[in-house]
Amino acid sequence: MGKALLAGVAAGAAASLAMKVVDDLWQRHYGEPSYETEFAQRIAGRHATALHFAIGIALGAGYGVAVELMPDTAVAGGIPFFVGEAVLGNEVIGPRIGLFRPPHTYPASKRWNSVLTHIVYGAVAELVRREVRRRL
Length: 136
What we know:
79% of the residues lie in helices and 0% in strands. It has one domain (2-135). The protein is mainly alpha-helical and 136 residues long. α4 crosses α5 (108-135).
């Protein structure tokens, strides 16, 4: 299980970086932060990027172990897993526990940003996880 965890950590770090790049480009174009950026800035202030990476690495580690135990988790390059996590976290659980406002109060562009960045996160996470796991 240690190799799966290590592969997941590497995957989470790489995927977090890719997600951050896409989110920064989106923010420059649309002028609004993502759910995740807004949350991290509210919670961690100037340490928001560190929080983003910590959450992303933890999620990647969990994903690495999940794929080891249930290989179908990686179906379609892991994308459904991470888009599902985004929808569940941002649209269902987050509002219910007070992390985010109800989804209908956000512009559609913010919601699409979340889907897009999690597609990127999922694709990069699975590519990196698979390659690191193969090399271990």
